[in-house]
Amino acid sequence: MAGGLHLEGIDYRFGARQALDAVGFSVAPGRFAALLGPNGAGKSTLFALLTGLFSAPSGTIRIAGHDLSRNPRAALARMGVVFQSPTLDLDLTIRQNLSYFAALHGLSGRDAARRIDAALDRLGIADRAGEKARGLNGGHRRRTEIARALVHGPEVLLLDEATVGLDAAARQGITDHVHRLCAEDGLTVLWATHLTDEVQDTDRLIVLHEGRVLADGEAGAIRGDQPLKARFLALTGAPA
Ligand SMILES: Nc1ncnc2c1ncn2[C@@H]1O[C@H](COP(=O)(O)OP(=O)(O)OP(=O)(O)O)[C@@H](O)[C@H]1O
């Protein structure tokens, strides 16, 4: 596959603990893929490998067609990331948070301003641009982080438990926004979560458990005639 996200044969160990065991999957360009796994499944380890924080002893990671180990600059330039722990500067405005990030990517002046406006608009927070991040609720802070991850124009967006700590309405708002980024802007998304209600039937679904991929396909087909939660609990061996 030329673009999108492609992983093959990824192993990772913490000493004797095998955190990832021959993990492989592909996400086609413009698709929303949910990486669903209970705590400890290996999602954060996988994100650390995808973002170049750890390096995998084996296997291949390709981001928008670029091999992460052979050509990390090109691969990482095409990726946006929203980490599990919030990383906004609460004393800066929304716009300042994005400007700072744009500068880290070598963007400034009108080009940066245009990209920042477009990203804020995309997440529905353009009218809040002058407000300090501290005054925003959790949902708007998350939207700001997603907008910030889009400023440099990535093709692939990774989100690690992006809705942690949000109420149901804010969670729904964020998942809807990110689905729209795929459908309307052609972004490829990997959405890590442990919450089955964030997965839609038409999403691509990868179930990760104890470092292994247990299921990979269209979410509706994986759940069949069961609710996804029941199917997920059956796959991972947890009691329903
Ligand atoms: N620094 C570390 N040292 C040793 N073991 C680790 C370390 N980090 C993670 N692990 C182990 O690796 C496995 C995968 O952990 P990981 O954090 O990737 O899971 P996760 O799916 O992201 O879970 P969570 O949602 O709780 O973050 C777990 O068994 C965990 O205990």
TrEMBL record:
Q: Which PROSITE patterns match?
A: ABC_TRANSPORTER_2
Q: Which SUPFAM superfamilies match?
A: P-loop containing nucleoside triphosphate hydrolases
One Pfam family, short name: ABC_tran
Q: Output the InterPro entries linked to this UniProt entry.
A: AAA+_ATPase (IPR003593), ABC_transporter-like_ATP-bd (IPR003439), ABC_transporter_ATP-binding (IPR050763), ABC_transprt_ATP-bd_su_PQQ (IPR022467), P-loop_NTPase (IPR027417)
Residue ranges occupied by any ABC transporter domain in the UniProt entry: 5-235
| Record flagged with keyword tRNA processing | no
According to the lineage, what is the superkingdom? Answer: Bacteria
Keywords from the named record? ATP-binding, Nodulation, Nucleotide-binding, Transport
GO MF: ATP binding; ATP hydrolysis activity
What the record says about family reads: Belongs to the ABC transporter superfamily.
Q: What is this protein called?
A: ABC-2 type transport system ATP-binding protein
Q: Which source organism does the UniProt entry give?
A: Roseivivax lentus
